[in-house]
Amino acid sequence: MVMASAGDGSQASASFSSTPECRIRRRRRLAPLPVSTAAGSSESAGASAAGPSREKRIRPASPTSSSSATSDVDSDVEQGEEVDEAVEEEELRPLPPAGPLHQVLAAAAAQAAWPVAFGSLSVAGRSRDMEDTVSLRPGFHTWVDGSPMHFFGVFDGHGGSHVSELCRDRMHEFLAEELAAEAASFAQRLSRRQQKAAAGEGTSAAGATTSGGGVQDEEQQQEERAWRAALSRTFRRVDALASLACACGRIASPPCRCPLSGNSGIVGSTAVVAVLVRGRLVVANCGDSRAVLCRGGGPGAATPVPLSDDHKPNRPDELARIQAAGGRVVFNNGHRVRGILAMSRALGDRMLRPEVIAEPEITVTDRTPEDECLILASDGMWDAVPNEIACSVARQCLQDGNPADAAAAGGTGPEPEPEPRCSNAASLLVRLAFGRDSWDNISVVVIDLQQRE
Question: Residue spans with biased composition (Acidic residues) (predicted)?
Answer without folding.
Answer: 73-91
